[in-house]
Specification:
Layout lengths: L5 E8 L2 E10 L4 E9 L6 E7 L7 H6 L3 H7 L2 E5 L37 H16 L3 E11 L1 H12 L7 E4 L9 H11 L3 H5 L3 H4 L10 E6 L5 H5 L1 H10 L4 E6 L6 H20 L1
Parallel strand pairs: 4-5, 4-6, 6-7, 7-8, 8-9
Antiparallel strand pairs: 1-2, 2-3, 3-5
Keywords: Cytoplasm, Hydrolase, Serine esterase
Pfam families: Esterase (PF00756)
Function: Serine hydrolase involved in the detoxification of formaldehyde.
């Protein structure tokens, strides 16, 4: 399948450009969109991948986060993929907000019905290759990763399993221990089947015991007024697991903040600075 890459939108912002693209994904077997913020820079820009949460597309972060201000001043490109395959018309794919379309969970599904749901390979392999082949202004060898909620789960797990590929990770309100929360259990049962060992391969709290030779501190922000904090996100479980192996972690509980992009917009500058430091090394 030819990538058929085409630009479908462009807007100037903080002297750089938000650009949106469509291409044919071989990994997912469908047409996909993604967004890039290109900072104003005479040098090749390092890349910060942003993975979004349930129900999102590649546009939510670009429109709502305000991340471009800090990305522009630090000279970092923002790369934002979609959250699942789309347009495959698999029966039941859009029946609920937390599974199927808009809910890829950044894993490679093993169940036949959901075999196109391979967002892990899309983010880790296909997208970086597409970027390096088509955008000479990006330095894809210098990359970091971040995300929100389901995307925070994606960022943490992808980072831990690919420490050679990413310089740093951060997350907003990540689903930090999905094998022990309703969202994760529903998604993993359907995508991965009943083999609990397979689930652990996509759970940051399980992975940190195996992959903890980290070059940068993990940064997590969590709003204390987040409705999903007590039952779905479980950052305390991840924190305990990090302590056991002395993995460098900073969890900041933010009083009064919820699960929304208002929360993300408030602290995104800190996250970009965190990654800028790691990407400069």
């Amino acid at each position: 399948m030819e990538s058929g890459l085409s630009e479908i939108g462009s807007t100037k912002m903080f002297d750089g450009y938000n650009k949106r693209y469509r291409h044919n994904s071989e990994t997912l077997g469908c047409s996909m969109t993604f967004s890039i913020y290109f900072p104003p820079s005479s040098h090749r820009s390092p890349v910060l991948y942003w993975l979004s949460g349930l129900t999102c597309t590649d546009e939510n972060f670009i429109i709502k986060s305000g991340a471009q201000r800090a990305a522009s001043s630090h000279g970092i490109a923002l790369v934002v993929p979609d959250t699942s395959p789309r347009g495959l018309n698999i029966e039941g794919e859009a029946d609920s907000y937390d599974f199927g379309v808009g809910a890829g969970f950044y894993l490679n599904a093993t169940q036949e019905k959901w075999k196109n749901w391979r967002m892990y390979d899309y983010v880790v392999k296909e997208l970086p290759k597409l970027l390096s082949e088509n955008f000479s202004q990006l330095d894809t060898t210098r990359a970091s990763i971040s995300g929100h909620s389901m995307g925070g789960h994606g960022a943490l797990t992808i980072y831990l399993k690919n420490l050679d590929k990413y310089k740093s990770v951060s997350a907003f309100a990540p689903i930090a221990n999905p094998i022990n929360c309703p969202w994760g259990q529903k998604a993993f049962t359907n995508y991965l089947g009943d083999n609990k060992a397979a689930w652990e391969e996509y759970d940051a709290t399980c992975l940190i015991s195996k992959f903890n030779n980290l070059s940068a501190t993990i940064l997590i922000d969590q709003g204390e007024n987040d409705q999903f904090y007590p039952d779905q996100l479980l950052p305390n479980k991840f924190e305990e697991a990090c302590k056991k192996v002395n993995a460098p972690l900073l969890v900041r509980l933010q009083p009064g903040y919820d699960h929304s992009y208002y929360f993300i917009a408030t602290f995104i500058e800190d996250h970009i600075s965190h990654h800028a430091q790691a990407l400069a090394l």
